[in-house]
Amino acid sequence: MENSIEIKAEEINFYYGTKQALKNIHLVIYEKQVTALIGPSGCGKSTFIRLLNRMNDLIPHTRVEGKIYFEGQNIFEENVDVVSLRRRVGMVFQKPNPFPKTIFENVSYGLEVNGIKDKKFIEEKVIESLNQAALWKEVKDRLHDSALGLSGGQQQRLCIARCLAVEPHVILFDEPCASLDPISTRSIEELILELKKYYTIVIVTHNMQQAARISDFTAFLYLGELIEFGLTEKLFTVPKQKMTEEYLTGKFG
Ligand SMILES: Nc1ncnc2c1ncn2[C@@H]1O[C@H](COP(=O)(O)OP(=O)(O)O)[C@@H](O)[C@H]1O
Ligand SMILES: [Mg+2]
User: What is the CATH superfamily name and number for domain 5-248?
Assistant: First the structure.
């Protein structure tokens, strides 16, 4: 089966001031597949994933070169509507970051920001999103309680629901389980496998087992360079590059 391309990054260089964090990255992200970005701390995983919805725009003194094509456009072009881009390419962070608002408001917020006023629609969308994030059953009787009272794993699923409510096409996860216990981690992994039926997923993880369990494609980065990209099954069993093999076998971390 041929996979269709959702995102195509070409010749990406990225700089924090004079420090180059990404070097000539070429990478494709396939539609409705899970792509994992792996590599040691500081290799540029977060920097790369943040480029995909232009979150790096918010960091001063940074500069990007190259192109990222998504839905018929190079996202760095001047006429790109960044708000719309970030709706289509949602993001879930390492540390769950719900707003200090109610559970309901956390999910309805994005809809209201996008100008939706129909109360019935908002209510249905909140329920649908909480359901999709496998959280509905746990929160249906406390929708108007503060989100900050939820456990870490529940907060992370709430952040996923918040992201789903505005109907993204791609979801970026930057180490979504880094602060979670093994049971919550498992539920997030199961959720990602369910979500990939409907969404294109990119996940940064420094947990190689996690990449092996849930991703279809893996990109291995080292010191800002893309060392190897391929089917997860292949990359983990018969890596082409010596450096990939050494990383996978724990020769360096
Ligand atoms: N806001 C920033 N300002 C300056 N340098 C940064 C910033 N964020 C990351 N870096 C540097 O860029 C490189 C890549 O970082 P990052 O993308 O966070 O790596 P990873 O997510 O793989 O751990 C590192 O050397 C890091 O120190
Ligand atoms: Mg990171």
Answer: P-loop containing nucleotide triphosphate hydrolases (3.40.50.300)
The best mutation among 12, 14, 46, 58 to test binding of ligand 1, ranked by most ligand atoms within 8 Å of the C-beta, falls on 46
Give the burial class of 81: count Cβ atoms within 10 A of its Cβ; 0-12 exposed, 13-18 middle, 19 or more buried: exposed
The answer to whether 174 touches 46, Cβ cutoff 8 Å, is yes
Alpha carbons 200 and 118: distance in angstroms, whole number: 28
**CA-to-CA distance for 97 and 99, rounded, in angstroms?**
6
Domain ranges of the chain: 5-248
Radius of gyration of the chain (CA): 18
| Cα 154 to ligand 1 centre (Å) | 28
* pLDDT tens, residue by residue, 157-213: 999 999 999 999 999 999 999 999 999 999 999 999 999 999 999 999 989 999 999
Beta bridge partners of 22: 14
